[in-house]
UniProtKB/TrEMBL annotation:
<dbReference type="InterPro" id="IPR032466">
    <property type="entry name" value="Metal_Hydrolase"/>
</dbReference>
<keyword id="KW-0224">Dipeptidase</keyword>
<keyword id="KW-0645">Protease</keyword>
<dbReference type="GO" id="GO:0070573">
    <property type="term" value="F:metallodipeptidase activity"/>
</dbReference>
<dbReference type="Pfam" id="PF01244">
    <property type="entry name" value="Peptidase_M19"/>
</dbReference>
<dbReference type="InterPro" id="IPR008257">
    <property type="entry name" value="Pept_M19"/>
</dbReference>
<protein>
    <submittedName>
        <fullName>Membrane dipeptidase</fullName>
        <ecNumber>3.4.13.19</ecNumber>
    </submittedName>
</protein>
<dbReference type="GO" id="GO:0006508">
    <property type="term" value="P:proteolysis"/>
</dbReference>
<keyword id="KW-0378">Hydrolase</keyword>
């Protein structure tokens, strides 16, 4: 049994404390994708974060494994370690160079989406005007496929996400998104997007963030309800978990350098308010999810699919085998 959390955020700082990762493992998680940067983070910050995270993983080999393959995850779980991969939220850190994708892959990035809420030169954000995937964006999708990285459509505009899914030669995921039918927020995904993702062979991983799940204090039951909806629409083989827990740690300022405008990235017109930050599920939700999913009629094998087997399948179909 492998439990797979498709998106988790530590402070974007090289000295981030990995205690929350250990807490995830204690709750039963075997693999977690940790964000190393987004469109608002300059490359200098992203590279500093990657270097710091890699150093922490390397310094604690008895606790952590930087995963390159599904086999690495399985071996880590058997040895009592949690496997970690990195994800990148947006294409701006790629500097408009598809060749950058291979570099990030070599550093541990296993998942990329092309736009974070706002439009850029490759793709559209979900809180911006609809233009569609650009010529550069098509090249980026091809580069992500070729590098053996999961193509992610979280935070991406609806029309653009459909074009990405049509262009990708490999399964596409939403690593942290919820059904728009249940909660009408621009970050959530429509039934059309859910079905298009499933048609690629991909997985929609449900988030536990309050804005997107529709409750002030999200619980395992709330997550399970959203999981059940995706399963009903697209089939249980196409739903997973990406709780999108974001951790803040005293003394670590991970604000992007320069003239950072939070209101641009999280606009009030889309429902964000600076004085009302989101809340997140506790990591212990992972212990409660099996029972909550069974309450909604899922059998044991279906629960295992949701908690990790679906994402393992997609990774096996996508990630390149490590060089001998």
């Amino acid at each position: 049994m492998i439990n797979w959390d498709a998106h988790f955020c530590l402070p974007q700082h090289p000295q981030a404390d990995f205690t929350p990762i250990a807490e995830l493992q204690a709750a039963g998680v075997n693999y977690v994708s940790v964000c190393v940067g987004a469109d608002m983070n300059p490359v200098s910050q992203v590279m500093s974060v990657i270097a710091g995270y890699r150093a922490t993983i390397a310094a604690n080999p008895e606790r952590y494994t930087l995963a390159r393959s599904v086999d690495d995850i399985i071996r880590a779980a058997a040895a009592g370690r949690i496997a970690i991969g990195f994800d990148l939220e947006g294409s701006l850190p790629l500097l408009e160079q598809p060749e950058m994708v291979d570099l990030y892959a070599s550093l541990g990035v296993r998942q990329i989406h092309l736009a974070y809420n706002r439009n850029n030169s490759a793709a559209d954000g979900c809180h911006d005007s609809a233009r569609g995937l650009t010529p550069l964006g098509y090249r980026m999708v091809a580069a992500i496929n070729d590098a053996g990285i999961l193509m992610d459509c979280s935070h991406t505009g609806r029309v653009c996400s459909l074009e990405i899914m049509a262009a990708s030669g490999k399964p596409v995921v939403f690593s942290h998104a919820n059904p728009y039918t249940l909660v009408q927020h621009g970050r959530n995904v429509t039934d059309e997007q859910i079905l298009a993702c499933a048609a690629t062979g991909g997985v929609v991983c449900v988030s536990g963030l309050s804005f997107f799940i529709g409750t002030a204090r999200p619980s395992a039951a709330d997550v399970a309800r959203h999981v059940a909806y995706v399963a009903e629409i697209a089939g249980v083989a196409h739903v997973g978990i990406g709780l999108d827990i974001c951790v803040r740690q005293p003394g670590l300022d991970d604000t992007p350098p320069g003239a950072f405008d939070a209101g641009y990235w999280w606009p009030e017109t889309a429902g964000y308010q600076a004085d009302q930050p989101p809340s997140f599920t506790p990591t212990g939700v992972w212990r409660q999810l099996p029972a909550e999913l069974r309450k909604l009629g899922m059998g044991d094998s279906e629960v295992l699919m949701v908690l990790g087997r679906n994402m393992m399948r997609v990774a096996q179909q996508t990630w390149l085998a490590p060089a001998a």
